From TrEMBL:
One MF term in the entry's GO annotations: DNA binding
An example Gene Ontology biological process: DNA replication
Ranges for domain Plasmid replication protein origin binding: 8-127
Signal peptide bounds: none
Name the UniProt record assigns to this protein: Plasmid replication protein
Gene3D superfamilies noted in UniProt: 3.40.1310.30
A GO term from the CC aspect: extrachromosomal circular DNA
Pfam families for the chain: Rep_OBD (PF01719)
Coiled-coil parts of chain: none
InterPro entries assigned to the protein according to its UniProt record, in alphabetical order: Plasmid_rep_OBD
Amino acid sequence: MTHQRKTTNEKGRYWCGLIYPGDSCPDDWENRMKISGLEILVSPVHDQDIADIATGELKKPHRHVIAMWANTTTRQNAERFFEQFGGPKVILRLENPRGMARYLIHMDDPDKAPYSPEDVLEFNGADWKKIALVEGNQSDAMSIVKLVEEERIHGYFDLLKACEADHPDLLEFATKQVTFCREVIWSYWNSYFALPKEARHGKA
């Protein structure tokens, strides 16, 4: 009984949970998040997460949600917010949202399926870059983006060689942020090939 009271009265500013758009989540979930007024980050659809390594079975497609209150709120209040999205009842309180923000794209988990930071959804002023990347890393991250675009980097190996040869100041970031760098490269070329052929001239 004492444990239950402690759990119910637990307070925090940052809470995270799972939702299943296209399944148990209501169709208007994005609008509900907007009108909540809360700063919210929502991961890309995790549809490549492996449930069973032996069989290769994938987990049910889902999104991770980080909801951020301006002031501390109770677990009970946070649970009421998440209930409307039809996900698992268990939610987690975060001491700091940075680690979870990075997990939205598996940024520090190279053994897991990578997802693009461009597909992170931001509601009501939430800023994924400011939360997931420390100030110094933000500058390095955007330098990597610029380098990939200007040099038409085709792969992670090419990026490391370019950093080693001409941008040694970016080498440490590139070797530590493997998933981020790979996703930047993938996103650049994915956007490039999505363009009409006549619009690609001069871009590669």
